[in-house]
Amino acid sequence: MNNSLVIMAGGASSRMKRSLEGANLDADVIYAAQNWHKSLIPIDDHKRPLLFYLLRNAVNARIQKVYIITSAENQPFYKFLDSHGSEELLTKLQIEIAIQKVPEDRDKPLGTADAVQQCMDQYPELKQQYFTVCNGDNLYSSNVMGKLRMERTAPHAIMAYSGSGLGFDDERLSKFAVMDIDPNGNLLQIIEKPDVTELNQFRDEHGELAISMNIFNFSGEHIYSFLMNCPLHSIRNEKELPDAVRMAVRENPSAFSCIPVSELLPDLTTSDDIKKMNLYL
């Protein structure tokens, strides 16, 4: 089976909150941005949040089951499901909530690799399935979700967004994670925030850069041990999903098939993005 989507929606949204001072937004939008996860910020005239449209695209990609990973303070997600769950679109999905628990010796969650592992522990069926994982604050398209569900020989897949398709210059692209891909389309490495002077070594024959935007498709059976054994990031002190991916690639250089795509990826990073999001709905 490959019809499940795991949405990571437990982040602190620090940059968004810092950007709200002086923002020209409705009071209820500001309240949501200050107090809730970014996926729940209203973005259209009907006060529907980004999460609604992410789920819409999942339905259009023939996803059947969605797991939303949240923090323990997740009542707004239940409120969202109470408000929108009966809409015809969302009745086509089975939606589950997973909670990323914070270890007793920490004051914040242990990172994205830990989030996915905890989701798999709470819903063990994922350990026997293929499933897609994505951020909750990006509006990934149904096209991308559908491509990740296609049959392949590799156990895992990752979307390779073209730099030009994202519409960013090299300076901006260097703030993302660049992918090094072999001639057979397998992932060799993910390089986080490379120096702009290093980008040329990762361009393909057309001069394109492949950018990871944190959307993957995993074989639960093969990825779980890498999530569990993922080391703490040396600076952020968290278990991060790209590090688990790197571990899997080191063990098996053909573990990840890179699927190219050239399209925009709307996201909610600052208050300015809230106003722009309506353009992509």
From TrEMBL:
Keyword terms of this UniProt record: Nucleotidyltransferase, Transferase
Q: Which domain of life is it from?
A: Bacteria
Q: Which GO terms describe its molecular function?
A: transferase activity
- Does this entry carry the keyword Nucleotidyltransferase? yes
Q: Where is the Nucleotidyl transferase domain?
A: 36-252
Q: Does the keyword Nucleotidyltransferase apply?
A: yes
Q: Which PANTHER family match?
A: N-ACETYLMURAMATE ALPHA-1-PHOSPHATE URIDYLYLTRANSFERASE, NUCLEOTIDYL TRANSFERASE
Its protein name is NTP transferase domain-containing protein
- Taxonomic placement: Bacteria, Pseudomonadati, Bacteroidota, Flavobacteriia, Flavobacteriales
